[in-house]
Amino acid sequence: MERSRIVVAGASGLIGTALVRSLTADGHEVRRLVRRAPRTKDEVRWDPAGRTVDPAGLVGCDAVVNLAGAGVGDRRWTDSYKRTIRESRLLGTATLAEAVASLDEPPRVFVNGSAMGYYGETGERSVDEDAPAGDGFLPSLCVEWEAATGPAQEAGVRTAFARTGLVVARGGGAWGKLFPLFKAGLGGRMGDGRQYWSFVSLHDEVAAIRHLIDTDGLSGPFNLTAPQPLTNREITAAMGRVLHRPTLFTVPSPVLRLVLGEMSGDVLGSARVLPKRLLESGFTFAFPEIDDAIRAALA
After folding, report:
1. What is the tens place of the pLDDT at every residue in 247-269?
2. pLDDT for 68-107, tens place per residue?
3. What does the domain layout of the chain look like in residue ranges?
4. What is the DSSP-derived secondary structure letter of residue 132?
5. In terms of Cα–Cα distance, which of 176, 198, 170, 172 is closest to 266?
6. Does domain 5-298 have CATH number 3.40.50.720?
7. How far is Cα 229 from Cα 121, in angstroms, rounded to an integer?
8. CA dist 211 to 159, 240, 245, Å?
9. Can you give the pLDDT at residue 264?
């Protein structure tokens, strides 16, 4: 697309950092939302908890991408931290959606983060964007998270939801914690290993978000997951192959539940999520296979 001005919330996170790098490398002007006093001309002050954002920083933007939110896997899910996870997403999204709607010339697109957690436990059943929300904390959060974009949609701004899977990357997220274990020869399957993990390479995650920004007419939910979800057992084997390490260890389900608490449902649960709408829109994955996605992360 032509050189654009794009506002990014959550620009310091794993995906946000990679997205900003990609956009800047291609000559786009990126404005990053920050919660402190801006230090550079590309930074814009916002306070999601206080429901404020500097409107001058949004004027003239072509797209707004919201990836802000407390890390789901950063800490044990106490009641307090679950409130933090929820409020960090809902307040930030509502703040941006309302700010976007108030502009005399709103951006043409608002891409809002979401997660494959929308679908909850799917077992061996494949789901795409037509499937209803599941049950539990993450599904209910995703429903509210996406609904918080309402003001932008009502203002006529094309709005897309990036329902992201497990991102294969060294710099953060679940895989950021797995790589050191597997490199040390301490990796292995979790539970019985039959649960499906819907993964996506960081490269394809960024490319898919840019596809949602660039492609007119794309709105609503899009699953950002590779076309072939694999079981934890299959992914464990792939990590061993690529890293040339044994994968003899197994983390029993009771131990995961003891250590992780409620979050263990995310690790032991199965999510077989397919990117139906993304593929139908013409998107092509660079790293659809797990071995290649792992090698891309290492590169």
Report:
1. 988 876 676 566 556 655 665 68
2. 999 887 777 888 999 999 999 999 999 999 999 999 999 9
3. 5-298
4. P
5. 198
6. yes
7. 14
8. 13, 32, 36
9. 56
